[in-house]
Design a protein that fits this description.
199 residues; mainly beta; twelve-stranded mixed sheet; globular; disordered N terminus
Length: 199
Amino acid sequence: MNKVFSFLIVALLSLSVVFVSCKKDDETDDTTTPVVTNKMVYNGTTYALSNAYVFYYGKENEVPASYNLDLVLSSSGFVYNQDSMDFVGTGDAIYFELFSSDSTKFSNGTYMMDTMNFGFPMTFDYAEVLLGYNLATDAGIYEEIVSGSFVVATSGSNYVFTFTGKTDSGEDVTISYTGGITKTIDESKSKGKNNWMEL
């Protein structure tokens, strides 16, 4: 009888170990870092990007024809205020002054930096990075981009933007962003051109 009882005790203990092991395997690890898909990476640090704003300035060149479409990819901390027609808030952003061969959208392909400011299609002539930047006080990190290539592709109705370049301080900056355009602002009838932070 004692042998049977001992066998039952051992069997029950073995089952409890199996159940405990299964439970631990099924539980999720709360310390897992969420994957950021729309992001800017500056000097090894990742910043989430939430919105894509386009400022349309119309035709830039006649031959070859190009159209000025400026792009702002920003974190949720920056919001475009329709009433005041400018950005407000504190956050992270990357800005490009791009020239497309299409009058209504970004043409697919690689846009190379043009430091001579010719405004040819499939180029960009200016770009900048803002990190933890307060638009009201101008406090935070601000750097111009001095080299790089910006790639546009499409996936269904979404744009796929990627960029690799360097800032004027020598820091590496990359972006990857897939999504639609949050808002398009038509500036084609405006007089002159302001900095996107002061529109």
